[in-house]
Hints:
Layout: H1 2-5, H2 7-18, H3 23-50, E1 55-64, E2 68-71, E3 76-81, E4 88-89, E5 94-98, H4 101-165, H5 170-230, E6 233-235, E7 240-243, E8 252-253, E9 258-263, E10 270-276, E11 288-293, E12 301-308, E13 334-341, E14 357-363, H6 373-379
Antiparallel strand pairs: 1-10, 1-14, 2-9, 3-5, 3-8, 4-7, 5-6, 7-9, 10-13, 11-12, 11-14, 12-13
Amino acid sequence: MNAINDPEPITAVSQSVARPRPPIAGKVLRLGAAVLVLAAAAVVGRWWFAEARYIETTDNAYIQGDIATLGARIDGDVAAVLVADNQAVKAGDPLIALDPKDWQARRDQAEAAVNEARANLFATRRQITQARAALGQNDAQIDQAQAELTRANADAGRSAALVGAGWTSRQANDQAVAAFRKAEAGFGLAVAQRAVSEQALAVVQSQAAVAEARVSNTEAQLRLAESNLANTIVRAPFDGIVGNRAAQTGQHVQPGQQLIAIAPPPAKLFVVANFKETQLRRMHPGDRVTLVPDIDPNSPVTGTVASFAPATGALFSLLPPENATGNFTKVVQRVPVRVALDLPQGRAPAWLRAGLSVTAEVDTRGPDAVRHGLLGSIFGTH
Length: 382
């Protein structure tokens, strides 16, 4: 029995010894892993050398827009709010209506003043015409007096010759001399009357100038009254979307009081990316930009570097830094860079809103550079 059972333990031991994997298999696995790591490093290195080292990135970037905060230019009571929050409007659309009764009355009053001033100017111009006609009459009277003076002078001369020869009486000579003196006085009177008429014309002309100035003044007052009347309607200055609607019906508002805001449409939005000064060396206007929004990282948009701010953001702050102080700590400054969005007509993403955060990636290789990414490096699409 013992002889028959002895081989069994030996067989079990030989099987347990055969289970461990030969050392060569582990070497193959380690070699394969090393090859994969080197291949990945080669791909990443190729991608970094060809593309990644030219990409400047910052997450200090925000979507901006020229938001218009509208207020009342005149005082009055809000008669109606004509739009709702988040409503799209066109340029010139009425947003808020103020009660126009008082301003309509002031406009009518200004129009009446204009009509009165114009009537006064018309009457003054008629007086000028009348004064000029009087001058013409005075000229005729002077001519008549001149002729009478010439005749009387001739008669007086002939009478003096006749009375000296005894052909006429001294009384007739005295009458001829008196007629000459009367004609002379008449001529002087005609000249004096013309001078008076010239002064009257000058007075009327000055009155006309005052009347014209009065007309201009009242017309300006009418235009101002019409402008104030038109300002009872607050209108949208551009196409946009209504927001921050603060006006309420019946509310009494004052000039300058903020009532409503208009945000620009997506086509008018832009991005301000605050890059470090060390990132700007190779960056130029026209460089392509990829913008990844925090709200939806899977929906990036593209853009173009439009311009650079004339100074760092710190200098535009409320308290600009003074680096000449004794306690100096050097801080890398940031420069605002404006990025124009590339939005095909009618294809703006739904998430696009002013104020949202994005990550800006600028390709400094130039405006014609094309980004292929890591997969492009693998498949050799550069």
